[in-house]
Amino acid sequence: MAISRVKLLRIMGKNKTLQGTLIIVFLWYTAHLLVNSSIIPSPYKVVITFFTLLRGDLLLHIVYSFYRILLAILISLIIAVPLGIGMGLNKKMDELFSPIIYILYPIPKIAFLPVFLILFGFGDMPKVILIITIIVFQIQIAVRDGIKEIPKGLFYSIETLGLSKTQKYVHLILPAILPKLFSSLRITIGISISVLFFSENFATVYGIGYFIMNAFTIIHYEEMFAGILGLSVMGLVIFKTIDVLERKYCPWIL
Description:
The protein is mainly alpha-helical. The chain has helices at residues 2-14, 16-35, 43-54, 58-89, 91-104, 113-120, 125-148, 152-161, 165-199, 208-217, 221-249.
């Protein structure tokens, strides 16, 4: 028994995700005991409900939300990375696009949801576009700033060595922008999931936001918390994926 406890402590010491999970569960269970109401169900009952509901519609709701946010990330990268690189390398392009970003970026994007619903209908498109408007500006600025932080001497060295344009991007520009790109994704993903939750309460019957609010409406608190748990798991998967990609493509910063 003593050996198994030692092994458990070692695993906990190495696995920071497990440590964080245990702390959250402890605080959650403490709140459950203090409130002593079905409004905050016990973690055990919620986990059981979560896995039970996964056999039904909950998995479908999570898949719909996951699809929307991943599609938005992909489209944002396709738009923002080339524009950010262009702004970082070309002063005139930076002078053209920066004022536009500075004007639009501070506006709460959720204010545009009614406009997107009118323009693009009541399917996935307005929700995806809403998330894109959150992610794209952040990535664009991060990529631009990453290039601007490259010392001028490194560009001169690349030219002196006679490297091709492709080699310049592979060995200089991409290593400079990737750390900032991953950091900007981490910052925007949390905001994007929050906005997705809000947007899924309008003109849809699938999505984790719809599931949570529907469970709240019919006073099924265990199901509501199971939906919140699903939202948390979805975010954890995305963040861990970003960490894995960063370790693979930016080993020098770890």
